[in-house]
Design goal:
alpha+beta; 4 strands
Length: 309
């Protein structure tokens, strides 16, 4: 006996393919960039007047942080572009690319910090002056305030989290300059400066590795870390009337939007609407707002040998 198969496609999309733009977060990014630009200019002028290569180098490093914030802000504004026939998801994937670039820049900064610390171990330098320590203290305030500005959505948006991690790393570096400078002034142990630098580098690696890993995964359409595929599959299978889940694919449209496609096989076509609603609710609880579900059943519907459209 031949088997009859009934297919039904359902596209579940709460946001109509348009991510909600948060003007408050955009404003916070702009404020953070302006404050950090002002700090970079002040640090550069102070370094030039004091003939301090350390301050000039740190000003250049902080300028790179401004670039990182600008990357995140640019990607943040890109989500406002509406989808069209050429970019059906708009430019929301730019947030993933921004998070990945920031994670790479952060890891690159760690490499430079480690290299500088090794050089200081080999050739001890003059301890930090009071001017450098005071400037670093201002840096703590500026970077700390920036982290506070952006912390609002950092756990929900990887792009924002990458910017926060970048600025948090700078806060730690500035704190290290102040702490090591004070300790060296008391003990004259110049090796404390590179030692503190290495400890800070380890802390940055510990917190930024997961950022790089997650952004790399999303960049190549991997499953977001927040989704447990075996558990999600099990939950779908426990839904009444569901018998099989096939061709399950999950990926990130942006740093805070998740998409899913799946083929769901039911034991009866008459339970289609009820089952679809149950699965939609389940996916929504997992923060999966974009789903394309294909339903099929081996049991033909009464008086319907052609299936369901």
């Amino acid at each position: 006996m031949s088997q009859h198969e009934h297919d039904h496609h359902d596209h579940h999309d709460h946001h109509h393919h348009q991510q909600i733009f948060d003007p408050v977060m955009a404003r916070n990014f702009v404020i953070a960039i302006l404050i950090n630009i002002a700090f970079v200019c002040g640090e550069f002028l102070l370094g030039w007047r004091c003939n301090s290569s350390g301050l000039l180098a740190d000003a250049g490093h902080n300028l790179g942080d401004v670039g990182g914030l600008a990357i995140s802000l640019t990607a943040f504004f890109m989500i406002k572009k509406r989808p069209d026939n050429h970019f059906t998801y708009g430019f929301r994937r730019g947030t993933i690319l921004a998070a990945f670039l920031n994670s790479v820049i952060l890891l690159g900064a760690v490499i430079l910090i480690v290299a500088e610390c090794i050089e200081k171990f080999r050739h001890p330098q003059t301890p930090s002056t009071l001017t450098v320590m005071l400037t670093a203290a201002v840096g703590i305030a500026v970077n700390g305030f920036t982290v506070w500005l952006l912390a609002r959505n950092r756990e929900r948006d990887l792009n924002v989290k990458s910017a926060c991690c970048h600025m948090m790393a700078d806060t730690l570096v500035s704190a290290g300059v102040v702490i090591s400078g004070a300790m060296i002034a008391l003990t004259n142990w110049q090796w404390l400066d590179p030692l503190v630098g290495l400890l800070i580098a380890l802390l940055i690696i510990r917190h930024s590795h997961s950022l790089w890993k997650e952004s790399f995964r999303l960049l190549f359409d991997g499953v977001p870390c927040s989704i447990d595929v075996p558990n999600l599959t099990k939950q779908i299978l426990t839904t009444e009337h569901v018998r099989q889940v096939n061709h399950l694919h999950i990926w990130g449209i942006s740093t805070n939007e998740i998409a899913l496609t799946a083929a769901i096989r039911l034991d009866t076509v008459q339970a289609l609407d009820q089952t679809r609603n149950s699965i939609k609710k389940l996916l929504s609880e997992q923060n999966i707002r974009h789903s394309f579900l294909e339903f099929s059943t081996l049991a033909p519907a009464p008086d319907d040998s052609c299936g369901i459209s």
